[in-house]
Amino acid sequence: MFEGLFQPTHLILILAIVLIIFGPGKLPEVGKAIGKTISEFRQAANVSLGDEAKAKQAKPELAVQAAQKSPEGA
Predict the structure, then answer these.
(1) Structural domain of residue 31, as residue ranges?
(2) Would the CA dihedral through 30, 33, 39, 40 be positive or negative?
(3) Per-residue pLDDT tens digits for 12-65
(4) Radius of gyration, alpha carbons of the chain
């Protein structure tokens, strides 16, 4: 029925193991830390993608500048 890496049974097993390891008192802290990590990762990915977009926009300008500096007869 479900295909992929994480099936519902796998997720339940993982959550049970996390509950046993950290206990119910630490779960909010673990969840907060995971959420913060995911948030920081997304921000870094967006910054990286933004830098790529800026670089792609800058490349045509650099090509025009290089063409203007090079001698046409060569």
Answers:
(1) 22-67
(2) negative
(3) 998 899 889 988 888 889 889 999 999 999 998 888 777 666 666 665 555 555
(4) 25
- Of 71, 9, 37, nearest to 29 by C-alpha is 37
Structure tokens given for 21? 């390891």
Total domain count, the chain: 1
DSSP state at residue 32: H
Amino acid at 5: L
Contact between 22 and 28 (Cβ < 8 Å): no
Residue 10 in domain: no
- Look at the block and give the residue holding tokens 């295909």: 3
Give one DSSP letter per residue of 35-74, joined into a string: HHHHHHHHHHHHHHHHHHHHHHHHHHHHHHHHHHHS-TT-
